[in-house]
Structures are given as structure tokens and as C-alpha cells.
Amino acid sequence: MYSISRDKLDSLYSAIAENYDLFMPLKAAGKTNYGFWSEGAEGDIDTLKTIRSGKDAFFPQVEQLYTVNREFIPADVAGGEEAEKAADTPIRTKLSITPGKLVDHDFVVFGMRPCDVRGIEVMDNVYLKDPVDSYYKSRRDHGIVVALACHEPEESCFCTVFGIDPADPSKAKADVATWLIEDKLYWKPITEKGEALTAKLASMFEEDSQADAKVDAEKAAIENIAGQLPNAELSLEGWGAGKTDEKFDSPVWDKVYKGCLGCGTCTFVCPTCQCYDIKDYTTKDGIQRYRCWDSCMYSDFTLMAGGQNRQTQLQRFRQRFMHKLVYYPTNNDGMFMCVGCGRCVEKCPQSLNIVKVIKAFAKETKEVSADV
Amino acid sequence: MQELINRLKELLTDGTVVRAIGWKKGDMPYNPEPAYFTTPEELDDFVYDGFCGANLSKMMIEAGKLEGKTAVCLKPCDTYSFNQLIREHRVNRENAYIIGVGCRGKLDIEKAREAGIKGIKSISGVEIEGDGEVVFDTAYGQKTMDYKDLMLDRCHVCKGKDHVIFDEIIGESQDTGDADRFEEVRKIETMTPEERFAFFKSELSKCIRCNACRNVCPACSCRKCVFDNTKFDSQQKANVDSFEEKMFHIIRAFHVAGRCTDCGECSRVCPEGIPLHLFNRKFIKDIDDFYGEFQAGKDPEAQSPLTDYTFEDLEPKDAVGRGDK
Q1: How far apart are CA A319 and CA A328, in angstroms?
Q2: Which one of A100, A155, B17, B72 has the minimum C-beta count within 10 Å?
Q3: Residue A356: its chain B contacts at CB < 8 A?
Q4: Which pLDDT score, from 0 to 100, does residue B228 have?
Q5: How far apart are CA A31 and CA A50, in angstroms?
């Protein structure tokens, strides 16, 4: 295991940025969000949770898919009898289609928490399965993930419920595991990609004989706190693959959705929400086709000409949680589409969230069985 | 709080109302949620404490369409929003039973997080009747904060302790104002245009277009928002650049100008902590300067200066010119 002192972190960022694009938590206007580091940016790996998750690294909020350009060929060039009749109207056009650029160089995602790393696994199941999403895949092929242990977890965290270990990022599907403890960052490469990155940065690190002891103590401290958090014992019983019929028509939905504003906060801060919309910008000479994150909370989500799909907020609300806790697990060997990062717990304007939904159903089940 | 619960139970039981809108206990000590209550039993989950900051007046747009009367709990500042909604014919006064609830300032859990408080297990001192310090029991030990230091920014520029519309009042209120409402606006006015642009650019570049500010805003009550309309290019789901959001926020600010009561919900709910209220407050300050002091929602009969015309009105060219200084 290697280490680097905290006061050299800025030079570490510089050193990484010499060879790679560096995507990491940056503090700007008082808040910490992922962004591309450049000289002078304020890297912030102390803040436990960025407001948006790190999913932008592989699935950016907006992405250009292709551009269509229409070129008018004036009548006199095109020629012909028709052209002569309307000498100054263009009669032929030439269309050219330029695909969006795939990522073709390596980049580093630095400081990703184990929950967000699991979020990538969740998206992999959607975008790397047939049909493979080439835009996503190019980023996955070129991205190197440096995960960071969660020093001092917060009460909104419940990743352990999904079997995620906040204390040990080397168990996450990352390329490098790191721990930020007091005045040092401890660094442990896990995969080949991680080894290659470490080799390039070798001059930055020291071999640290005390590293293992320090890291073990930190792991124990994190585990101790994680076990005390209010949602550490949250039960997922009753959820998972094959529960569609059981849950879909439950009267509980009507009790839990009413406060929902129908905004997209929960979906946009979520590390696992991966739905998008495709739209066109009309430009002077054609269109730019792009995709952007969409939210199942919005009234126009998957809207069809006949006015379907989901016409009430209850239906939209149900969709979000059924997708995370039932539909996705049904299609992905029981894996849940929630990683317990707790961002929705912190950010919902109305204080609704997935934990409250799970608890409301558990309460109902208890009451029903008590009645019997 | 118990007095409030008892009264709501009474109103439900004697048939004065068929439902009540208030706050339901959260699963954390700081996250109660706006909720409907239809039976006295459901009211056992009712809570009203320092974290009940949500303005419930907008929920009355939908509740007012339902059969029978709805009791709604409104804090003094929320009643301005309700009046404004009456002015705009968006709520049905006849279908509302307004309980003016006491308020001594509402709290912002972000303030605790900024002070480094985390791993919260329980919180005391946030009761509506309380007074003094707020004590946090956390996984990292006990922490305390002054109630005032934990208050939402908007409560430091409180509109006063009086409910401007109500059927009955339960609990005492305090005027928690201890700052000048337009101080922040003045600070921005004294910036050079370049500084001002840089300030708003850095703040608005954080916007994730979740629309929480719009959806929570009592003045944003259009049945179909132009930004959601799939038939026009105005539907905005993506941004040309990181500052594209300025269009959305500036258009929204213009649209609510003269109608915004400065309830501060936009800034309260913004996940990125963007001080969105500054746009609205600039408009309010300008309206005050140009047409004389006006508080939207104070009087449901009053004509807004922007929808009224008098011979004394400022000429548009003079209003525009004043922005240049």
C-alpha cells in the first residue's frame, strides 16, 4: 500500500491531469459536485456526498448523439427544367450526418464512494447488455475508477443494506481503493488499470509500512459508525424479483405518494437512475440530436400520442420505486437498483424517499398480519 | 402541538372538515412530510415542529377541488401565499378551513450539516413551544446549536407574526426578523455588470433542472408550464451550455414578478443551494421603488402594481434607465 500526504493532493491532481482527464468532486459556489479538474479548481474529497452522484462520468446529463446538416444546392448548379422555372429557389439539398464523438482516451474518476461505484455496476447491466450502448461503453472502456472509503458516514447512508462496504473500497468494482485518514491518503491498486495508473504516478507516492495498521483502524471505525446509523437494519423483505403482482396494486402507494411535487430532484441526484429522453435541437441548417436524463416523475415521461403512459402522480411515483425495488431485480438476478447513498433522503423537497416507502410497506404488512 | 392535534381531531369528528393538510412525522428527526389526514387515528402521526418549513398553501389548489372542506395549517408567511392564490382564483376560499399555526422561525438541516453535524440520531429543542438551544445526539457525540443559527435564511427577514387570513389561530408566533430584507439585493446591485454576471453564472451553473423550485412555488400554478410543453421548442430538458439555466430562472422570475410573496420556498428546496430568492427579491425591491411599497398576498383585494395603471406610474424608459446605475 502507498500513501501521499494530504498537502500534496493538489500536486497529485496535477500529475493525474498530465496524462488523463480528471473527473472528481470539486467545490464551487459553496457546493461539491463532480466536474473536470483544471489548475485552480478546488478539489474536495472531504465532503462525503457530492450533491449529484458520480454517474455523470459514464452517463452525462446531456450527450450529443449526432448532427444532421442540410446544405442547399442552388438551382443554377442543380440545373434542369424545373430549376429554370424558379431560378432563385433552391431545389436540391444535401444531407450529411455526423455521429457524436465517442470517448477515445483514458480518464480518471477520482474519489468515488463505494455506493456510487455500485451505481456504475447497476448501469452496466442496462447499457453493456445487448444492445450495447456504444457511448456508455466507450466511457467504461476508458474510465479508471479510484474509489474512496467513507470517513464518517452520515445518518442518511444505508449502503450496508445492499451489501456495500463503506469501509473497504477494495471490495467495490473499482480500479484503485483509497482511504483519507488524518493527514494522508492511502492508495491501493486493485486491477490492471489501477496498477498502470499507479505506475504512472509512482514518484508521487511513498511506501508506507504503517499503512495497513492505519487503514485497519479506519475500517473498524467506519464499520462501528455504519452499524449505529438509523437505517442500518432496514429490511428489504417483500421486495425484489417477482414481486410485481404483490406490490403493484397495494393501497399503500396511495398513502405514500401524496406529498410528491413531481419534480426530478430524486432522479437527478440518484446514482442509479438511468432513463433518458432523446430530442432534437433545430439549428439553422439541420438538427442536433441529443439525449438527456429524464425523470419518471415528470408528466411528459414516455408520453405517447394518445396521452399515455402514466397519467397520475401516483402512477409515476409507483413506477420509480417499483423499478428500483422490483422490476430491475426481476431482470437482473435480484440486484436492487438502489445503493443506499441517501441522496434522495437528504434532498427531496417534501422529505419523501425510498426509505420511507420501504418502511410504509413494512408497517402495512405488520398491521395486516396482526389483523389476521 | 397537542392542542393543534386535538383541534384537528375535533374538526374531523364534528364534520366541519373532511380532511386536513399538515405535516406527518418523518423517519428522521428532521424530515416531516406534507400530508393529508382523513381520520382522527391518522392524526397520531401528525407533527408540528421547527422542521415543518414547507408552505402548504399550494396543496390547497388540488385539495380545494375535492368534495367538502379541507383544514390547512398555515404559518404566518404561508397565509400571504394563500391570499395571493385567492387573488389569482387558484384556490377556493369556501372549501378551506385555515388554521393559523404559531411560528418561531423554521429550521434548515443544511445549516447543521454546514456546521459539521452528522450521524444524527435524535434532536431536541425544536418543539414549537420550545425556547433556547437545539441539541443533536449524533453517532459522533452530542452537539448543540442556537435555534436562531439553525433557522432558514428567510426567517431572518420574517414578514411578521400576523396571519393575514385565517379561520382560527392556534399557538403563538414571533417576528424572527433580524436582518434587512434587501441587504443581499443591494450588495448585488453595487457589483459591476461583470461581477454580477460572474456571480449568477457560478450559482446557476450548479442547477440540475430538477424543477423543484418551480413545482414548490405557490406562484407557479400554471396548469401546464411552458417548459413542459412538448409541442414547442420551449420545452427545456437539456442545456446548450452550463449557463443555459439562466433562461429558465430569469423567465420564471419575470413570470412571478408582482405575484411572488417572497415565501422563500424556491431557495429552501433547491438541492444545490442556489439563492433563487434573490431574483424575486430584486423585482420586489424595484416594484417598491418604482410604484411604492407593495407586498403580494397581504390583501387579496389589492391590485398588483404590475397589473394596474395610474397616471403617476413611472415611464418605462425611466424604469429601464434605473437598472443601469
Answers
A1: 11
A2: A100
A3: 26-27, 33
A4: 85
A5: 8
Beta bridge partners of A94: A71
**Which of A172, A183, A119 lies closest to A147, judged by CA?**
A172
The DSSP code for B302 is: P
Cβ neighbours around B216 below 10 Å, total: 21
CA gap A22, A204 in Å, rounded? 16
Task: Concatenate the DSSP letters of all residues of A167-211 into one string.
Answer: T-GGGSS-SEEEEEETTEEEEEE-SHHHHHHHHHTGGG-EE-TTH
Query: What backbone phi and psi angles, to 5 degrees, belong to A70?
Result: -115, 125
Nearest residue of B to residue A298 by CA position? B228
State which amino acid sits at residue A255: K
pLDDT at A71 over 90: no
Q: Could you say which of B27, B205, B228 has the minimum Cβ distance to residue A355?
A: B27
Cβ–Cβ pairs < 8 A, chains A and B: 124
Mutation target to probe the A interface, by most A beta carbons within 10 A, among B49, B215, B220, B263 is: B215
The CA-to-CA distance between both ends of chain B, in Å, stands at 50
pLDDT, mean of residues B277-290: 95
Say yes or no for a CB contact (<8 Å) between A61 and B228.
no
Q: Where are the alpha helices (DSSP H) in chain B?
A: 2-13, 59-63, 76-87, 109-114, 183-189, 193-204, 212-216, 245-256, 265-269, 277-291, 316-322
Residue type for position B167: D
Provide the pLDDT for residue A54.
Answer: 94
Average pLDDT, chain B: 92
Say whether B118 and A261 touch across the interface (CB within 8 A).
no
Give percent of chain A above pLDDT 70. Answer: 95
Residue of B205, B210, B276 to mutate, testing the A interface (most A Cβ within 10 Å of its Cβ): B210
pLDDT band at A281 (very low <50, low <70, confident <90, very high): confident
Q: How far is A303 from chain B (nearest CA, A)?
A: 9
Rounded Cα distance between A121 and A125, Å, is 7
Task: Note whether A33 contacts B230, CB cutoff 8 Å.
Answer: no
Contact A263 B235 (CB under 8 A): no
Instruction: Answer yes or no: is pLDDT of A371 > 70.
Output: no
Spell B28-66 as b/e; 16+ CB within 10 A means b. bbbbbbbbbbeebebbeebbbbbbbbbbbbbbbbebbee
pLDDT at B325 over 60: no
Contact present, B19 and B66 (Cβ < 8 Å): yes
Neighbours of A236 (CB within 10 A): 14
Distance CA A247, CA A241 (A): 11
**Cα three-residue angle B37-B38-B39, rounded to 5 degrees:** 105
Q: Looking at beta carbons, which residues of chain B come within 8 Å of A225? A: 119, 139-140
Q: What is the pTM of this model?
A: 0.93
